[in-house]
Amino acid sequence: MVHETIKQYDVAAKDIYNMDESGFAIGSTQGACVVIDSRIRSQFQARPGRQEWVTVIECICSDGSMIDPLVIFRGMKLSSEWLISSELTKGWRFSCTKKG
Fold it and tell me: Which terminus of the chain faces fewer neighbouring Cβ atoms within 10 Å, N or C?
C-alpha cells in the first residue's frame, strides 16, 4: 500500500522521512534487595536514585540522509555540563523544557 501511494502521488525519496522519539534515564540508581512473603499480592517498585529523563528525536530520510538529532533535557536552562564533547555531537541540537 505504501509503494502504491508513493507511485500514485509521485513522491520523491527525498520527501519521505521517518521520525522516532526515544528516551533514556541519566544519573545514578540505588540497588536494593527485598525479601517478601510470596502470598502478598502487592507490587513493589524499585526506588530510583537521582535520575533525569532525556528525550532524543531522530529523523532519517529514505534517500539515506538524516536530520541531526534533537536532545531534550528537563530544566529551565541548558547547562554545558550536560553535554559531551562537541566533536562527537557536531550538528546535534540541544534544548530543555520545564516539564521534561
Answer: N
N-terminal to C-terminal alpha carbon distance within the chain:
37
Q: In what order do the strands lie in the sheet with 66-74?
A: 17-27, 51-61, 66-74, 93-97
Closest CA to 47 of 60, 57, 33, 36: 33
For 37-87, write each residue's pLDDT tens digit: 566 555 555 555 566 778 899 999 999 999 999 988 887 887 777 777 777
Question: What are the beta bridge partners of residue 57?
Answer: 21, 70
DSSP letter assigned to residue 93: E
Those residues with Cβ within 8 angstroms of residue 13's Cβ, 6 or more apart along the chain or in another chain: 61, 62, 63
